[in-house]
Amino acid sequence: MEAIGVLMACQMSPYLEQELEKRFNLFRFWNFQQKKEFLKENSNSIRAIVGNATAGADAELIDSLPRLEIVASYSVGLDKIDLGYCKEKGIRVTNTPDVLTEDVADLAIGLILTVLRRICECDRYVRSGSWKKGDFKLTTKFSGKTVGIIGLGRIGTAIAKRAEAFDCPISYYSRSAKPDSKYKYYTNVIDLASNCNILIVACPLTAETRHIINREVIDALGPKGVLINIGRGPHVDEPELVSALVEGRLGGAGLDVYEHEPEVPEQLFGLDNVVLLPHVGSGTVETRQAMADLVIGNLEAHFLKKPLLTPVV
Ligand code: 8YV
Question: What is the Cα–Cα distance from 196 to 112, expressed in whole angstroms?
Fold first, then answer.
């Protein structure tokens, strides 16, 4: 039987590569300089794409692969996949929900503590020998602060649960109120931002949520407020965020994602009230393996004509 062709859209996990290679005819897209030529030559054997938060499947790629049946994303976020087009063409889509929820929620809390308690700056203080010259300055308490969450899905809920353990009053914004939620619901982000100390972005990136954090929201959060983004860079109008932080109109920020990764605005590098992470929300050995296993499980299920493990489309 002809081996099933699987196209990996970019480099993401050596373990996943190895496991895909055992089962399929794996094409590593990044190894081909002439992408168009490569697609032309192999369009008849590729039946699956493995994407992630960096590269997925847009209409152009989908159109160049007439035998494409499934896009399996090594991510929970689906913003790099043209979902509408996949639906229209009957191409199945899967992602990796649940397995990464805890890690991302843990990291959101880590970012809050690191920004408020200046953990990175404290570490530099000790390493540079400054402690010998005097005590570190006082920082800001986390426990009891009001936390606002944009998007009360799996990850938002896991963050809320953790913040509850810090005795934080919790409120949220989402498209509609969650009938079973005990948290306070705001019908718009500006009201949420005006009424919380820490604002966390935890919703999917869609046309509606792009730049959901704009100047007005930043101003509503204010000079004592802290923004945490573990969602996607384009949720935030980045130049507005940078100028607010540089001008002291926003109290601080903890960022795991950026508008143009891996580019990070250099104006942020000198700011001690900002913590910058390189998109590592799900980046633990345990979780990345579980994500890879889900990608493989979905592809195997599809090609064995069994129900998909985590279908989206
Ligand atoms: C990953 C992510 O960084 O799940 C998501 O949506 O952004 C992350 O888990 C990425 O897809 C791993 O390559």
Answer: 13
Q: Give me the count of residues in the chain.
A: 313
Residue 34 lies in a domain: yes
Q: Retrieve residue 7's tokens.
A: 């196209």
pLDDT in tens, 269-280: 999 999 999 999
Residue with the smallest CA separation from ligand 1 atom 5 is 75
Give the global pTM. 0.97
Q: Which atom of ligand 1 is nearest to the CA of 75?
A: 4
**Residue 114 domain boundaries:** 101-276
Pocket test for ligand 1, best of 13, 71, 76 (most atoms within 8 A of CB): 76
What local confidence, expressed as pLDDT, does residue 2 receive?
Answer: 73
**Domains held by the chain: number:** 2
Atom of ligand 1 nearest to the CA of 287: 9
What does pLDDT average to over the chain? Answer: 98
Catalytic positions, please?
A: 232, 261, 279
Q: Where are the beta strands (DSSP E) in the chain?
A: 5-8, 25-28, 46-51, 70-73, 92-94, 147-150, 170-173, 184-186, 198-201, 226-229, 252-255, 274-276
Encode pLDDT of 175-187 as tens digits.
Answer: 999 999 999 999 9
Residues in contact with ligand 1 (CB, 6 Å cut-off): 12, 52-53, 74-77, 100, 279, 281-282
Residue carrying structure tokens 């979902």 = 83
- Same domain (yes/no): 176, 126: yes
pLDDT at 1 over 70: no
CA distance 18 to 26: 9
